[in-house]
Amino acid sequence: MSRIQLFDTTLRDGEQSPGVNLNAVEKLQIARQLERLGMDILEVGFPAASHGDFLGVQQIANTLKNCSVTGLARAKESDIRTAYEALKGGIDPRIHVFIATSEIHLKHKLRMSRQEVLEAVKYHVELCRELFPKVQFSAEDATRTDYVFLAQVAEIAIQAGAEVINIPDTVGYTNPVEYGRLFHYLRQHVPSFEKAIFSCHCHDDLGMAVANSLAAIENGARQVEGTMNGIGERAGNAALEEIAVALHIRQDHYGTPSRMKLNEIAKTSTLVSRLTGMAVPRNKAIVGANAFAHESGIHQDGVLKEVTTYEIISPELVGVTNNSLVLGKHSGRHAFINRMELLGYELDEQEIEKTFKAFKSLTDTKKEITDADLHALVAGGKASYNQPFEIEHVQVHFVSNGTQSATVRVKDKDGNEVEDAATGAGSIEAVYNAIQRILNMDCTLVDYRIQSITQGQDALAQVHVELQLDGCRVSGYGVAQDVLEASARAYVHAAGKLKEVFAETRS
Ligand SMILES: CC(=O)SCCNC(=O)CCNC(=O)[C@H](O)C(C)(C)COP(=O)(O)OP(=O)(O)OC[C@H]1O[C@@H](n2cnc3c(N)ncnc32)[C@H](O)[C@@H]1OP(=O)(O)O
Ligand SMILES: CC(C)C(=O)C(=O)O
Ligand SMILES: [Mg+2]
């Protein structure tokens, strides 16, 4: 049986999650890891959406060498030409062009007749084919589309040169039996079905995205689309790591392997969660903190006697290591580098130095450093490389039921330090007011999220903020053992990005 193609849209549909806003450096960092994970195709943005998205897509397309990079475009000439400019430098450029096909979308959104949609599909897919060696066409809202019309659209798109036909469940409306039947129907009613790869793309509004995707695979889909950790518009997309592990564990049933390097999953999941600020629920399949934890006595007894009694997936399979070498205060560089290598990181000298320093300072206050802490240090460290500003010092004076005050010292890239103090209704507000005074920026805090990385009193805190200034919205990320310090780091990270955006606009 042929291998299923993995189409990852973490950096396009995933980035459409409310509150997620990645800059070009973060997108490239995630894209590189997704490539390492073994994705076949990465959809990394919508080049016509903004200049920033265009540059992000272009940079990734020009950098990655082991997977195909694609970008989304409407059935609109200018979107397609813009996507071409962004993607043309890639090793295997492809375009993903779409138009809605359901009556609801035709009548209320596009205000087009079926005939007009058919003509638009033919015209735009042919245009795409002139520019790109590979064309993917999507019939948006396919699962609420009349089957006969959908088959007609798919046939026209294939005749016009599309190699991949995607049948998205855009609003997460379908169920496994129905979605499976839809693929079965298309197989019988699209004359050129075998000439194309049919793809599934599911959303999780009714909690069935992964089940629906697997049903499509059982009924002829040869490409599956989704995101890491299932992030995405509204309730999210199908979680690709869940699908890949299901295909592996239940090979007996599906018989369709994927190229995903399963032992890279934990690291990828952590990176995506840290940089997007989308926390992974503890009970989430495969990548949740509790996915391999056994709490009850009967289960623990069973696992101690024979692990397969209650464990169908071994943690090692998905890159959750179970190391006997404990890292702590007395560990040296060798043990640290060894663990980093075991976790699959390829860090350069500068990264090792910086992460090792952060690790050592963490050991002053935290007894045992877990793999989750190390993932966070690397993600946090990478977020801070080449950052225009860094927090040097934070001091807070707390008064119960009173005004709080904070003194903060910030260092810029050239080593210049500036210190200032401010007050606020709460400690974090006081810290943020002090940073605003130092950077002379009057930005608005539009989102603040805090999460503990591991359990226990000495767990690392990770803070994710979003700042807005003159219509520009950016996110920032900070990790520290202390909540106030993590909050300050996240704020200067975001504020630094804003400074860069405005410096670029002025130049
Ligand atoms: C299911 C999905 O995930 S689809 C992808 C969703 N992602 C995004 O929308 C993120 C990027 N989007 C954007 O930045 C903006 O929406 C842009 C740049 C694409 C367009 O912005 P604007 O020109 O201001 O249009 P706006 O977003 O308000 O409306 C969309 C327009 O595109 C039309 N449209 C929507 N889908 C398509 C399509 N596939 N093909 C052709 N036209 C389309 C709509 O009918 C509407 O047209 P109208 O202005 O004639 O009424
Ligand atoms: C653009 C398409 C493929 C999409 O994301 C959807 O329909 O959900
Ligand atoms: Mg989608």
Description of the structure:
The protein is globular and about 70 Å long. The chain is 42% helix and 19% strand. The strands form three sheets. It has an eight-stranded parallel barrel with strand order 1-2-3-4-5-6-7-8, surrounded by seven helices. It starts with a strand and ends with a helix. The protein folds into four domains: 272 residues, Aldolase class I (TIM Barrel); 26 residues, no CATH class; 59 residues; 121 residues, Double Stranded RNA Binding Domain. Helix 6 packs across helix 7. By secondary structure, it is an alpha/beta fold. The site of acetyl coenzyme *A (ACO) has 15 residues, from strand 4 and helix 4. Catalyzes the condensation of the acetyl group of acetyl-CoA with 3-methyl-2-oxobutanoate (2-ketoisovalerate) to form 3-carboxy-3-hydroxy-4-methylpentanoate (2-isopropylmalate).
List the helices and strands and how they pair.
Elements: E1 5-8, H1 24-37, E2 41-43, H2 51-63, E3 68-74, H3 77-87, E4 94-100, H4 103-110, H5 114-131, E5 134-140, H6 147-159, E6 164-169, H7 176-189, E7 197-202, H8 209-218, E8 223-226, H9 240-249, H10 251-254, H11 265-276, H12 297-305, H13 333-342, H14 349-363, H15 371-384, E9 389-397, E10 404-412, E11 417-424, H16 427-439, E12 444-452, E13 461-469, E14 472-480, H17 483-506
Parallel strand pairs: 1-2, 1-8, 2-3, 3-4, 4-5, 5-6, 6-7, 7-8
Antiparallel strand pairs: 9-10, 10-11, 12-13, 13-14
Helix pairs in contact: 1-2, 1-11, 2-3, 3-5, 5-6, 6-7, 7-8, 11-15, 14-15, 16-17
